[in-house]
Amino acid sequence: MGSPRKSDRKALLDIGAWLFNIVTSVGIIMVNKALMATHGFTFATSLTGMHFVTTTIMTIVFRWLGLIQPSHLPMSEVLKFALFANLSIVGMNVSLMWNSVGFYQIAKLCMIPASCLLEVVFDQVRYSRGTKLSIMVVLVGVAVCTVSDVSVNARGVMAAVIAVWSTCLQQYYVHFLQKKYALNSFNLLGHMAPVQAASLVLVGPFVDFWLTGKRIDQYAYALPSVFFITLSCLIAVGTNLSQFICIGRFSAVSFQVLGHMKTIFVLILGFLFFGKEGLNLQVVLGMIIAICGMVWYGNASSKPGGKERRPHLPQRNSNGFTGEKTHDDDKV
């Protein structure tokens, strides 16, 4: 067991990483909402490509400053991750287009049990009864907040399934690659960002034209819209980095569970800045249930046996071999 000072340091770093992710994630949602709703820039996939171009530039600067050290990651792993990540981006956009908002939200809620299944199958993780129940409470709370009309169609279900599983695989793979190849968040992002940038810049305009019927080169760019695009790209650097940091420090399941706190913040900020999306008793009740579930999950998963690997199975270390688990809690 680590010293109290080391435990306190880890707790502070965990809180800092999580706050970084919440601030950047909620910030980019608000900026993108203003960009799309107010300025009519509906090219979501291309915008994500711009985000990764900006992130790639950041990794080049970080490498020049010495914050990213030389590291090795097989191209097969990079391409596999890029496939999951790009399918997630396109799948989410298509799911939102083909499904009602209610079914889209239900599909997003399915990411938590899907992530749990990946950890059970690949990492041999088992959850205590309290941890399972706390996850269910979070799901119920967020569902009460966000799910309204629900209509189902075959192609919408297919898009939702692709979106859910590709997102879960992407998030699981971040954690897996960091551990297997002993990569910190900066190094992993340095490997991934250029490939995602190149692929999304190439396919983004075609995907957006398919989804919206509009061409990005025919958009009427003006100073306000260019400002919001630039701001979105700058915030996206923090969002991408914070996601890698958080999944590396926690797990895909914890990232999903605590990630619903961002949903609550978005609802509140949406009410403050876009008043037509008002809060009502149902939404407030759902928020309270979800927050209680998140607090319960934090307590239940941190207790002995709350979430653990089966002891009779070996743990992969950072070099990909089996043996005792090696983990530096203070590594970002």
Can you characterise this structure?
- There is one protein chain.
- The protein has one domain.
- The chain contains eleven helices and four strands; from the N terminus they run αααααβααααααβββ.
- The chain has helices spanning 4-39, 44-65, 75-98, 101-109, 111-122, 129-146, 154-180, 185-212, 223-249, 252-273, 281-302; strands at 125-127, 307-309, 315-316, 322-323.
- The strands form two sheets. It has a two-stranded antiparallel sheet. A two-stranded antiparallel sheet has the order 3-4.
- A hairpin with a 5-residue loop joins β3 (315-316) and β4.
- α6 packs parallel to α10 and α7 (154-180) packs across α9.
Averaging pLDDT over every residue, what do you get? 82
Distance between the termini: 20 Å
Assembly state:
single chain
Number of E-state strands: 4
Briefly note the structural class of the backbone: mainly alpha
Please compute the radius of gyration using only Cα atoms.
Answer: 20 Å
Figure out the total of helices: 11
Low-pLDDT residue intervals, each spanning 5 or more residues: 312-332
The helix/strand order is HHHHHEHHHHHHEEE
Give the overall silhouette. globular
How much of the sequence is in beta strands?
under 5%
Biggest sheet: strands, sense, closure? 2 strands, antiparallel
Work out the helicity level. over 70%
Kindly report the spatial arrangement of strands forming the biggest sheet: 1-2
How many domains, as an integer?
1
